[in-house]
Design brief:
Blueprint lengths: L32 H15 L5 H9 L9 H15 L5 H8 L16 E4 L23 E12 L1 H4 L8 E10 H4 L12 E7 L3 E3 L23 E2 L4 E2 L2 H10 L9 H16 L5 H16 L2 H11 L1 H9 L1 H6 L13 E6 L4 E6 L8 H4 L4 H4 L1 H6 L4 H7 L9 E6 L4 E6 L11 H7 L9
Parallel strand pairs: 8-11, 9-10
Antiparallel strand pairs: 1-2, 1-5, 2-3, 3-4, 6-7
Helix pairs in contact: 1-3, 1-8, 1-9, 2-3, 3-8, 4-8, 10-11, 10-17
């Protein structure tokens, strides 16, 4: 496919070979609690037979705002999509938790002469591409109600066969061209007008707080500003207050993701309310992965291979059986995977990447680091591996061949680094201490 294969082919998530000039951020970025919860939830659902890796990957391909979502926001959206498809919970149930549920409305809220504003669309809260009847160029624009055209089935619901469709008022809205287009006076008269038919859920009264800055008004389309959901046996707090408190507790400022937090916790709360998962097992899953990340299992495997040539032969032949000799599980917890172990030599250096997602041997190395999941690493590693390695402080001699392994879900890779010179007399503990394990790269 050449350089154009990553766009318009499989989609925006297919990053391999994209000519990005972004330098890789090699710093560690600790995950916040909601991100760990989201990861644990996917693993648990897979173990319970309520989702699969293939479904998750396919749902990823269908996201409407892939490039605008954070990594675990995408995961939460995909979990929601698969759960709705499987009828684990319904779209209406999720919408209710998010404060998005619409009721049939036969009495119009606006009358001719009402000054209104078209709400913003922000697909970052969505779990699938929507069918929209409002042209994107008028999002955030202000206008006047000319006529109530009648009540009709909401086409954005009716377009999906399984959805319950509500009846909504439809209006003819008139807008000034010079308010829709900032440079319109260049092309036309300041009195020129535009009319568009708009359904009521997209409209709000024009007031002094509405403004016209399209970048600052993105929440209104998706959540009521103050919405308390009463489910009888439990009450969801005001959305805005809950959201502020959730964000306040995030460990790292740069990791805040308002939309991801809201969607992930709505999905978790729904699944807990249905008895499909419980918070104790979610927390246990989080703690298990945290423990793996701190156990240096990768170092143990490498040192064993350095000290035991026969073990190394068996490990390279079958990674799953090899690590099983050490009491370890080579397959990932949410799917049956093959562990492939490759060896660096004086003539060959191996590099691992997953251009479509973030396939990683988490059963033995824990969660993948932020740089491994980043757009720049995924795009550039299959295109310019030597330059990528140099950014990690590793310059590979032109005489050494680079072998890049693009992991695509069914295999996980572990690289055995070359044993440093002068370490022949060191003990196992001493050898583990000198290993620099970059979790996917090896020096």
């Amino acid at each position: 496919m050449g350089e154009e294969g990553w766009i318009g082919g499989l989609g925006w998530f297919d990053l391999g070979g994209m000519d990005l000039q972004e330098k890789i951020d090699t710093k560690e970025h600790p995950l916040s609690h909601w991100e760990k919860e989201t990861h644990a939830l996917l693993v648990l659902l897979a173990q319970k037979g309520l989702t699969s890796t293939d479904e998750h990957r396919r749902a990823m391909e269908s996201l409407p705002a892939y490039t605008h979502m954070s990594y675990y926001h995408r995961w939460a959206a995909c979990i929601a999509a698969v759960c709705i498809e499987r009828n684990t919970f319904t779209k209406n149930e999720l919408d209710e938790y998010l404060g998005l549920k619409l009721e049939t409305k036969l009495e119009p809220s606006f009358s001719p002469g009402s000054l209104v504003r078209i709400k913003m669309e922000d697909s970052r809260i969505r779990w699938r591409k929507p069918h929209l009847r409002v042209p994107g160029y008028i999002f955030g624009s202000s206008g006047e109600i000319i006529k109530h055209l009648g009540n009709f089935p909401n086409p954005e619901q009716a377009a999906f066969y399984t959805d319950t469709t509500t009846i909504q008022p439809l209006y003819l809205v008139q807008l000034r061209m010079n308010e829709v287009w900032k440079n319109y006076p260049v092309y036309g008269d300041s009195t020129d007008l535009l009319t568009v038919e708009v359904y009521e859920p997209w409209l709000e009264l024009q007031n002094e707080n509405s403004g016209s800055d399209l970048q600052d008004e993105k929440v209104s389309r998706d959540f009521p500003e103050h919405h308390v959901l009463d489910h009888g046996d439990h009450v969801h707090d005001d959305r805005k207050d809950t959201e502020v408190e959730s964000v306040r507790r995030e460990e790292c400022e740069e990791r805040k993701d308002e939309y991801g937090v809201v969607l992930s916790r709505a999905v978790l709360n729904l699944l807990v309310s249905k008895g499909l998962v419980n918070r104790a097992e979610v927390q246990a899953s989080i703690e298990k992965r945290d423990k793996i990340s701190g156990l240096n299992l990768g170092q143990r495997i490498v040192v064993k291979a350095w000290m035991d040539p026969e073990f190394k032969v068996r490990l390279l032949e079958d990674g799953n059986k090899g690590v099983a000799e050490l009491g370890l599980e080579g397959s990932n917890p949410n799917a049956e995977t093959k562990l492939v172990v490759v060896e660096n030599t004086d003539q060959e250096h191996h590099v691992v990447v997953c251009t479509l997602c973030s396939c990683y041997p988490s059963a033995i190395l824990g969660l993948p680091p932020a740089w491994y999941k980043s757009r720049s690493y995924r795009a550039r590693t299959v295109r310019e591996p030597r330059k990528v390695l140099f950014e990690f402080g590793l310059e590979i001699s032109p005489s050494v061949r680079i072998v890049v392994h693009d992991s695509t879900a069914d295999c996980r890779y572990l690289v055995l680094p070359v044993r440093p010179e002068g370490t022949e007399g060191l003990t196992q503990d001493e050898l583990e201490a000198v290993i620099t394990m970059l979790k996917g790269l090896s020096t």
